[in-house]
Design goal:
The chain contains 4 helices and 12 strands. The chain has one domain (2-179): Jelly Rolls (Sandwich), CATH 2.60.120. The radius of gyration is 16 Å and the shape is globular. The protein is an alpha+beta fold. This is Cysteine dioxygenase family protein. Keywords: Dioxygenase, Iron, Metal-binding, Oxidoreductase.
C-alpha cells in the first residue's frame, strides 16, 4: 500500500466533511460514531471523480490510498483507496473506528475473530458493491479486504484519527492459521 500524502481541494468533499464533522462532534462512543458517520456517507457519498483520472488508475504494486482530508483537530481523516484486480490487504484490525463507502466496483471483505490468540476463525464475508456503506469499531474489527474483480475498485474510508500523523489505521496484522468454526 502507498499513501499519497498530498491533500488538495476536491469538488464535493466539503459537504461530506461537514456532515462527518457534525457526527464526530457529537462525541458518542466509537460504535455509535461509526453508525452516525455511516449515515452521513449513505447520504453524501461522492462519485469516483473525487479522484483525478490519474489517481483512479491505481498502482500495480499494491492498493493505493489518497489522503483527501484531515480534520484540523485530528479527530478524523478521509481517504480514497484504489484497488486494482487481485490486490488484497493483510488480515488486520484498526486503531479506531472506520466507515467505508464503495465509489466504484466491488470490495470483498472477510471478517475474523481471534478467540484464543493462536488462530483466527472466519466469521463472515461480504461483497460490498458500488454505493454500499459499511462501518465498524474495535474490538471485533479483524478483517481482510480485496478486489477479486476485473475492474478497478475505488472506496472512500473515514477513520477516527489523523492517519497522516500515525501513518496507518492498522493496529495489528495477523499472521495466524485460519480454522473453521467449531475446531
Amino acid at each position: 500500500m502507498t499513501l499519497n500524502g498530498s491533500v488538495i481541494a476536491r469538488p464535493g468533499l466539503e459537504h461530506l466533511v461537514g456532515g462527518v464533522r457534525a457526527a464526530v462532534d457529537r462525541h458518542a462512543g466509537w460504535q455509535r460514531t461509526a453508525s452516525l458517520v455511516a449515515g452521513v456517507l449513505e447520504e453524501r457519498l461522492p462519485g469516483p471523480d473525487i479522484l483525478t483520472v490519474e489517481e483512479q488508475t491505481g498502482d500495480p504494486a499494491g492498493y493505493q490510498s489518497h489522503l483527501l482530508h484531515v480534520e484540523p483537530d485530528g479527530s478524523f481523516s478521509v481517504l480514497a483507496v484504489v484497488w486494482r484486480t487481485g490486490q488484497v490487504t493483510a488480515i488486520h484490525d484498526h486503531v479506531t473506528w472506520c466507515v467505508v463507502g464503495v465509489l466504484r466496483g466491488v470490495e470483498h471483505e472477510e471478517r475474523f475473530e481471534c478467540p484464543t490468540g493462536d488462530h483466527l476463525v472466519r466469521v463472515g464475508e461480504s461483497a460490498n458493491a458500488e454505493g454500499s456503506v459499511t462501518g465498524f469499531a474495535p474490538p471485533g474489527d479483524i478483517h481482510r479486504v480485496c478486489n477479486p474483480n476485473q475492474l478497478t475498485t475505488i472506496s472512500l474510508h473515514v477513520y477516527g484519527t489523523d492517519v497522516s500523523r500515525i501513518g496507518s489505521s492498522v493496529r495489528r496484522e495477523y499472521d495466524l492459521p485460519i480454522r473453521s468454526a467449531g475446531r
